[in-house]
Amino acid sequence: MKVTQEKLPDSQIGLEIEISEEKTKNTYEKVVKNLAHSVNIPGFRKGKVPRHVLLQRLGSQSVKAAALQELIEETLPQAIEQESLEVLGTYQLRSDFDELVAQYEPGKTIVVSAIVDVPPTVTLGDYLNLSVKAEETIYDAQELEDYLEKRRESQSTLIPVESRPSQMGDVAVIDYRGREVNEQGEQGEELPGTSGNDFLVELSAGKFITGFVEGIVGMNPGETREVAVTFPEDYPMKELAGKSAVFTITVKELKTKELPELDDDFAAEASEFETLAQLRESLEAQFKENAATETKTTIHGAIIEELLKQSEVELPETLVGEEVQTLITQTAMQMQNYGMDIKQIFNAASIPQMRERTRPEAMQNLKTSLILKEIAKKESIQVEQSVIEAKIAEVTKQIGDRNIDRQRLRQMVQDDLLTEKTLDWLQSKTQVELVAKGTITEVTEEEEQGE
Known about the structure:
Elements (H helix, E strand, L loop, with lengths): L1 E7 L3 E8 L1 H18 L12 H8 L1 H23 L5 E6 L3 H7 L6 E8 L4 E2 L7 E6 L4 H14 L2 E4 L10 E11 L5 E16 L9 H5 L7 E7 L13 E15 L5 H7 L5 H35 L1 E2 L3 H21 L4 H4 L4 H29 L6 H15 L6 H24 L1 E6 L2 H12 L1
Parallel strand pairs: 6-13
Antiparallel strand pairs: 1-2, 2-4, 3-4, 5-12, 7-11, 8-9, 8-11, 10-11
């Protein structure tokens, strides 16, 4: 079989296959014979239909189309095997099928053109002399204090207050009703979703709509007050966004938080440690580790960004389509875990749009993965089997008794560990300039606004 290859963009190869006279004739005769044995034609027994009757009833073009289809399905895999091509997915016919049918004559050669996707080629840049700028996250001791304060609040006790009006920091039990206010200041109908009884509200700045909490401050238990507010333009309930309203609020009870002392007893109750000093030491180590991890992540992100600029990767459509599908499936699973009805979100109208929006992310993921794998291959970077097994055991323990594809899990773990090890290796070879957190982000935002 004569096959001519043509290198095409996007990691594709064009194949021009010349099918011999003998092959075109034998396949046509075989198809006619099979049809004669399988087609029901009134007045004739199966296998006894005269050739001219069969062609007349089915149509000569239809029979030729069936023979041509079988020719293509047989010869294309043979051509791929003959040329020793590693192909991704299946072939795509390049020739127009109707034109081929018109050209096809049993006993004469015919040329069929097709396209196949092949593994992508990666052209690396100078990855050994990278220079990047990344934001540094520095441990702030105030984070630890803020965390401890939140833990104290979570373990606070509510004590009834009767001797004074409400103030910021209190917790009030209220009944409330909201009514729309027109341009003349007149109250209208009760607004949907703006009423409640025995509602527990913490009097803290930033809670609820601006002005709501502030309007409760100074009220005594049993007191009723009208509080004017305006719903923000980005309010989640669109029917209320931007509207003016008046809330009739009655304070039924008033309570204050009594926080536990920050001492060893608190540490023993809030953690596995016996003393506050031990708890502080553990939390400080965690916060420092988090800061170091965040810094490392930004460095790795900067390295990836530079690698993507320097390297060239031709992505076959087969891989892009698979990655797009993977990302959409992951999104669907996350939404389902949140209790959302994915049937309402994923439908015939929305999925094509999702595919289009997901495509850039899929392409960047693939390019990053392929570049890092190519570097790992060139530099003989490998992950020890003991490390892979330990990580698999850790992940298996986390996900519990769910049905999982063990082989796929192993591949994912191995890929993740290799990516991490390769990035660590690249970081050791890269000139890294650390800058204050927010510096690069601010510059990027300014550039986007300028554009």
